[in-house]
Design brief:
Strand order of the largest sheet: 2-1-5-4-3
Strand content: 15-25%
Radius of gyration: 51 Å
Oligomer: single chain
Order of helices and strands: HHEEHEHHEEHHHHEHHEEHEEHHEE
Shape: rod-shaped
Largest sheet: 5 strands, antiparallel
Bound molecules: adenosine-5'-triphosphate, magnesium ion
Number of helices: 14
Length: 460
């Protein structure tokens, strides 16, 4: 498997090699066009100096003189017109030179071998230790025409510089590879940790400690990743809670339906009253289950947020009055007084959904208020929002329950709720619907005194 680490290291090394190659080619081009003619001129000038010096001092020992110049860092080939030649200074690796060239030089021409040396395109031409890669000047020694070929002895003149530059090159290459290795590890390591973390998450382990303390993109990625893991953990917890709540809510009515139908089947001699009682319990419980499944379906569709609101303009107060009349039997049977202030107010919203909101808030008020209490319903308009206030003089909600009542399946007083057909989903559906309308819901409650729900909705 190609790891990210090896990919980065190999890519970087390739880039280094390629860049060096390009740099080498470019500097060679520069050498060919700028440095080579200059180099040729320099050596030619030196050759002329030698020629001139000998002209002015014809008495000196040529051999000795050339040996000395050789020691100064030059390679010399002195050849007479009849082909007698001798080398001085550093040795040439290739010693051949065309007799024609020798002849031309002995006849007085200057040979520009450095300028014309065809050593491909490379700077190595400069270092090519070839007799042809030299400058030739004519020189007359003891009346005989000679040709003097000269080139700098690079091993003497640049020897230590070559070692110096090679060392720089090798050390920087080695150090670069070493540092690329370390830096790549620094980049890749958090990614490896993140990969391990994803594996853990897929196995259901959400408690992650990534320990990535970086502020760059990878640090941000790790941060977001931790947030995501926490979110997933919460989601998973919610899911498990939800499933266990649903199972519990289904289990208890099913158990009582089973129990009572068995009793009906097995017990003989039941009075018709008893029989009627059991059957009504079975009916209640099945109604409860049907209510539960309706509410669950509602929540699922609201959760998907695919539910596009079917908005129309309608009279909110008329809708609330209708809910009050539908529920009349329940508040009348408890002898509850209804105090209402419902001036006509048209709003633009999903009529069916908002119907459920008032239905749940009013049935809650009825459910949690003892006989003889009062339920007040008020609608008012404030600029472009409307406020609906539903209050009761019932049992109230304790401070510790208050933050949770909009949670799914939350029932504050379970002993009381058990008697009622109650799932604890009503307020969570209410909140979802109000949120979908860009509205707001608040609750104020004092245990023993009563509860007020405030719903604000935009009119348009
Ligand atoms: N007006 C109220 N007075 C006192 N307690 C309330 C009132 N409204 C809601 N509650 C508390 O909040 C809980 C959640 O209410 P919610 O409407 O979500 O569920 P529910 O009425 O118990 O069941 P469902 O509406 O699903 O049949 C209730 O069980 C109750 O304890
Ligand atoms: Mg309710």
């Amino acid at each position: 498997m190609k790891t990210l680490y090896s990919r980065i290291v190999i890519t970087t090394i390739c880039i280094m090699v390629l860049s060096s190659l390009i740099a080498f080619i470019l500097s060679n081009v520069y050498y060919q066009f700028n440095l080579k003619p200059y180099n040729d001129q320099k050596i030619t000038a030196m050759a002329y100096d030698i020629q001139e010096f000998y002209k002015q001092n014809p008495d000196i020992d040529v051999e000795n003189y050339l040996v000395h110049i050789g020691k100064l860092g030059y390679q010399i080939y002195l050849v007479s017109e009849d082909g007698q030649g001798a080398f001085y200074g550093g040795e040439f690796r290739k010693k051949e030179i065309a007799p024609g060239i020798v002849q031309q030089v002995t006849h007085g021409e200057t040979y520009h071998g450095v300028l014309n040396f065809s050593s491909n395109l490379f700077i190595t031409g400069f270092f090519d230790n070839d007799l042809k890669n030299s400058i030739g000047v004519p020189i007359v020694i003891d009346g005989v025409n000679h040709a003097l070929f000269l080139r700098p002895d690079v091993t003497v003149q640049f020897g230590e510089m070559r070692i110096f530059f090679s060392l720089i090159l090798i050390i920087s290459i080695l150090l670069s590879i070493f540092h690329v290795g370390i830096i790549t590890n620094y980049i890749v390591e958090p990614i490896v940790r993140l990969t391990d973390a994803t594996k853990q998450i897929s196995q259901g382990k959400y408690d992650l400690k990534l320990n990535v303390k970086r502020r760059d993109e990878i640090g941000q990625l790790a941060d977001h990743f931790s947030h995501m893991a926490k979110g997933l953990e919460q989601l998973e917890q919610m899911r498990q809670e939800f499933v266990s709540n649903v199972s519990h809510e289904i289990q208890s009515p099913l158990a009582s339906i089973q129990g009572f139908s068995q009793t009906l089947q097995t017990s003989e001699g039941l009075s018709s009253e008893q029989r009627q009682h059991y059957l009504s319990i079975i009916e209640d419980e099945s109604r409860r289950m049907s209510q539960l499944s309706k509410q669950l379906l509602m929540l699922a569709s609201l959760d998907k947020e695919e539910h596009i609101l079917e908005k129309t303009t309608f009279d909110l107060s008329a809708q609330i009055k209708q809910v009050l009349s539908v529920t009349e039997w329940s508040w009348r049977s408890k002898d509850l007084a209804i105090d209402m202030e419902l001036p006509s107010l048209f709003i633009y919203g999903d009529q069916q959904m908002l119907h459920q909101v008032w239905m749940n808030l009013i049935t809650n008020a009825v459910k949690f208020t003892d006989a003889g209490g009062t339920i007040s319903v008020r609608v008012s308009r404030h600029d472009d929002i409307c406020k609906v206030e539903i209050s009761d003089t019932g049992m109230g909600i304790s401070k510790s329950d208050l933050p949770h009542i909009f949670n799914r399946f939350y029932k504050a007083d379970s002993s009381r709720n058990r008697k009622e057909t109650s799932t604890g989903l009503g307020l969570s559906i209410v909140k979802k619907i109000v949120d979908l309308h860009q509205g707001h819901i608040e609750v104020k409650s004092e245990p023993g005194k009563g509860t007020t729900f405030f719903v604000t909705l935009p009119i348009i």
